[in-house]
Design brief:
With 176 residues, the protein is α/β, with parallel strands linked by helices. It contains 4 helices and 8 strands. The longest helix has 12 residues.
Length: 176
């Protein structure tokens, strides 16, 4: 694993992302992906926006399942592809987990406004799969998780995961 470093990462639109910290990780199995989610959950707090990017089957929902476990939320965390968004209330007095799948949403924030994410964000942890180019305007401070996997006909479970913390909230991001 590579140590965290300050980077001049780019946003999905190609613009330079200010105040970013990047952490590169290797994940060898779905169980490790879920464990990474639990470790990330330990640093999350109400108002955090987490954006997940990766190919179909990369492990976005598996990571979110670990986030839900780490946050102590109610309900099984499954892909919200067909319902667009699911809210998992906390069982421990912490923030709720709002899990959004923006894959089928074409427009930017305009289409996302129907989900009232801006209302949910201050009191919840909002996790958006396929949110690049759609939800960045919700918060200047956000954690972007990019999951890369081997493509094609393969049973390789290894993943390269890059955590990109943007904004002052994530300035202290370290390996989780």
């Amino acid at each position: 694993m590579e140590a965290p470093h300050t980077d001049t990462a780019t946003e999905p639109d190609g613009a330079a992302a200010p105040d970013t910290v990047t952490v590169d990780l290797a994940v060898e199995s779905p169980e490790q992906m879920q464990e990474l989610g639990r470790r990330i959950a330990a640093v999350l707090r109400p108002g955090d926006l987490v954006m997940l990017s990766g190919e179909l089957g990369a492990g976005k929902t598996t990571l979110t399942r670990g986030l839900g476990e780490g946050l102590g939320v109610r309900g099984a965390v499954t892909s919200p592809t067909f319902v667009i968004a699911r809210v998992h209330p906390s069982l421990t007095g912490g923030p709720a987990l709002v899990h959004v799948d923006a894959y089928r949403l074409g427009g930017g924030l305009d289409e996302m406004e129907d989900l009232d994410l801006d209302v949910s964000l201050p009191d919840s942890v909002v996790v958006v799969e396929w949110g690049d180019g759609k939800v960045e305007e919700l918060s200047q401070d956000r954690l972007r998780v990019v999951i890369e996997r081997a493509v094609g006909d393969t049973d390789d479970e290894r993943r390269a995961v890059t955590l990109i913390g943007t904004g002052a909230r994530w300035a202290g991001l370290r390996e989780v």
